[in-house]
């Protein structure tokens, strides 16, 4: 018996009914054109768009829903796809992966210069990032070298944002790259970066970006922006805790870092999603007593991960 458009609508409504509460608060998106006539694929595409997933992410979810239906032999509207096999994830299997880092990176301070890096590394923050925004190569080389120097004698892991060549040069622990930074990389650049032995963290803001990140075999994956942030303009909506939890289930074999609009009050619910690290900018930079705030955030983290 063939499936009618009404059957597909019913399946889509069933998916939406089961997951509307988890993914509340997103405006419905237009359903992208379907490249297959598969009923499950079409229903999931329609449902995920109604639930507010942007086209690129709704397409990933529709493929996964279809793949799971084929793999298990049954369609389930109630279960959100979270099996890496259905998304075709590599999960750092294979020869071309970046060096590993701990599953729990802990409190992750994203900092504007080497002086801040020094202060936070010496306050005991386990993971720090130099996010020095400059296009002056001499200033970049100087600041990156100073940041590497600043963490010497501390156990802090230092990631350098954006400036991966300077990070290799200075011998940092790792680099952090976003989707636009990846666009600017040639294949040889990636090979150079991997061969350097440095860890790679990648920013993501939804399923399509997570799949792209996974294909690189990164050391960790960052998930953002969880909540609204005023630090910079974001191309994607704040993802919220419901989506963060779904992303964390899918990527649970990776070290995961949550970022974006996270302050002390949000630490417990964010960590309850399963991520092993929280990256903060304003929560530290705007603190009246910086060292006390760092201690407080590290204690919140330890309490929730205990
Ligand atoms: C831990 C962490 N997550 C995300 C980002 C953002 O990186 P990117 O998207 O490249 O944006 P910029 O920080 O370069 O403006 C990050 N830096 N760190
Ligand atoms: C630098 C950055 N990247 C994000 C992402 O989602 O990729 S959110 C973000 C800003 C985080 O700052 P705050 O903790 O002050 O909101
Ligand atoms: Mg960047």
Structure write-up:
There is one protein chain. This protein is of the alpha/beta class and 306 residues long. The chain folds into 2 domains: 5-85, no CATH class; 106-305, Aldolase class I (TIM Barrel, Alpha-Beta Barrel). It is 45% helix and 12% strand. The protein has 14 helices and 8 strands. It has helices at 5-19, 39-50, 55-72, 84-87, 114-122, 137-151, 164-170, 179-183, 187-195, 207-215, 240-250, 267-271, 282-285, 290-305; strands spanning 106-111, 127-130, 157-161, 174-177, 199-204, 220-223, 256-259, 277-280. The chain has an 8-stranded parallel barrel, surrounded by 6 helices. Helix 7 (164-170) links the parallel strand 3 (157-161) and strand 4. The longest helix is centred in the first third of the chain and has 18 residues, at 55-72. It is globular and about 65 Å long. It binds the ligand Cc1ncc(COP(=O)(O)OP(=O)(O)O)c(N)n1, ligand 3NM and magnesium ion (MG).
């Amino acid at each position: 018996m063939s499936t009618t458009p009404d059957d597909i609508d019913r399946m889509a409504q069933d998916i939406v009914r089961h997951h509307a509460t988890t993914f509340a608060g997103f405006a419905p998106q237009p359903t992208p054109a379907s490249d297959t006539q598969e009923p499950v694929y079409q229903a999931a595409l329609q449902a995920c768009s109604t639930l507010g997933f942007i086209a690129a992410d709704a397409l990933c979810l529709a493929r996964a829903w279809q793949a799971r239906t084929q793999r298990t032999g049954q369609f389930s509207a109630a279960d959100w796809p979270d099996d890496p096999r259905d998304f075709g994830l590599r999960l750092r299997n294979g020869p071309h992966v970046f060096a590993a880092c701990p599953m729990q990176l802990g409190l992750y301070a994203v900092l504007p210069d080497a002086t801040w890096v020094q202060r936070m590394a010496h306050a005991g923050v386990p993971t720090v990032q130099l996010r020095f925004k400059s296009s002056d190569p001499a200033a970049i080389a100087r600041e990156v070298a100073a940041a590497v120097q600043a963490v010497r004698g501390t156990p802090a892991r230092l990631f350098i944002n954006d400036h991966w060549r300077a990070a290799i040069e200075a011998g940092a622990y790792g680099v952090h790259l976003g989707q636009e930074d990846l666009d600017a990389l040639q294949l040889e650049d990636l090979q150079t970066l991997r061969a350097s032995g440095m860890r790679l963290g990648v920013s993501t803001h939804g399923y399509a970006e997570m799949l792209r990140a996974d294909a690189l075999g990164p050391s960790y994956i960052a998930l953002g922006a969880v909540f609204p942030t005023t630090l910079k303009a974001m191309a994607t909506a704040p993802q919220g805790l419901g989506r963060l939890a779904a992303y964390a289930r899918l990527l649970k074999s990776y070290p995961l870092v949550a970022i974006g609009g996270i302050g002390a009050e949000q630490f417990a619910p964010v960590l309850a999603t399963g991520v092993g690290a929280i990256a903060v900018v304003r929560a530290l930079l705007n603190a009246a007593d910086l060292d006390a705030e760092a201690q407080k955030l590290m204690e919140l983290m330890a309490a929730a991960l205990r």
